[in-house]
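Consider a concrete sample entry:
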Amino acid sequence: MTQNTKPSVSIFYPCYNDWGTMGSMVLFTLQTAEKLGIDYDFTIIDDGSGQQTLDLLDRVAQEYPNINIVRHETNKGYGGALRSGFASGTKEWIFYTDGDAQYDVRELALLIEKAGPDVDVVQGYKIQRHDPLHRIVIGRIYHWIVRVAFGLHICDTDCDFRLIRRSVFDTVELKHDSGVICAEMMMRITRARFRIVEVPVHHYQRAHGKSQFFNFPRLFRVAVNLSSLWFQEVFLYKLRGVRGRT
């Protein structure tokens, strides 16, 4: 991105019971956007949170009327929140990260530096993961499975710190409401031959709440959904290709 170019960015964060971190994320985001001098809009996707988070978002809406709050009456899942966020984008680029503040939104500046005319996706990857050991181990296994199963040659598929050209979603249609949406998204982006660059970003320990992903029932559902995604988008895709050549 050249010095004289001011990028146009739609910023959004999925939020599920992130009342302990969303306030600081809002402040850092506004400060960062103003410092970078970007044309931006800002949306928070509340995915059926409890009353503490709803009260916080009410205060945010009152104090910062330029922030758009999209509310899901019931929890639609991480993928559902992301799909709502992508649909809310109006600018040339869309930036998102998670509402738990395990990434520093001020590092958006690192992504914007790489957002040139020959780039479609600026993908963050964790310099070092700061999580409990079991999460690190499960995360590495998950990344390896996704990398092999979907042929994704990127450093960190599940690093949710991304800057994506909005026009990508004219081609890429996302369908999943669960956490496998990241594998789905990067698979479709890679298959469509969009241009990806990767940037190292910092990852921090969770300061509030607990992960909605790392429990056995959810891990089982993720395994089922990931298997279904592979069957539909890899196995059947290749099968259709073979039949098309005969």
